[in-house]
Amino acid sequence: MDPSRELALVAHEHGHQSGGAVASHAGQYQSTTTPISIATISSGFEKGDFLVREEKGQRVYFDFFEEAFNYIAYKGYIRMPREDEAEWMDTMNNVHASVKGGMKYNTGKLLMVLFRPIDTEKL
After folding, report:
1. In terms of Cα–Cα distance, which of 64, 81, 68 is closest to 115?
2. Buried (b) or exposed (e) across 69-95, using 16+ Cβ within 10 A?
3. How many Å apart are CA 45 and CA 35, to the nearest integer?
4. How many CB atoms lie within 10 A of CB 36?
5. Side by side, which strands form the sheet with 109-117?
6. How far apart are CA 41 and CA 36, in angstroms?
């Protein structure tokens, strides 16, 4: 497997969950504070059954989940660890629930949260 596609724990600058380390499935730990880009896959939209949201607000609709997942995986995104993904989903659900009268436009269900390190040399 390509090392850039290995599942890794995300280091949080505030010390949440992963304790400031990145772990590959091989169990090797390295200290890091690398910024990340987040993408999501949601379902339940009229334009397509699945929606991918990625950096810079780009939205792409797909008829099949496999197409959505392949699209975002090809761009180098990998799935967040379950604990981090659950925290992200809880935050989004709380934000959506805080809208008086409910959400009017973003009524899809968040299925998956993915991330990839940002290459700061290109910035």
Report:
1. 81
2. bebbeeebbbbbbeebbebbbeeeeee
3. 30
4. 15
5. 59-62, 50-53, 36-43, 109-117, 78-79
6. 17
84, two tokens: 């981090």
Q: Report in angstroms the alpha-carbon separations of 56 from 37, 47, 59, 89.
A: 10, 20, 9, 20
pLDDT tens over the chain, length 123 residues: 344 444 333 333 333 333 333 444 333 323 357 888 999 999 988 778 999 999 888 899 999 999 999 999 999 999 999 999 999 889 988 888 888 887 777 667 889 999 998 876 765
Helix or strand holding residue 96 (H, E): helix 82-97
Q: Where are the beta strands (DSSP E) in the chain?
A: 21-23, 29-31, 36-43, 50-53, 59-62, 78-79, 109-117
CA distance 82 to 59: 24
Give yes or no for a contact between 118 and 39, defined as CB atoms under 8 angstroms apart.
Answer: no
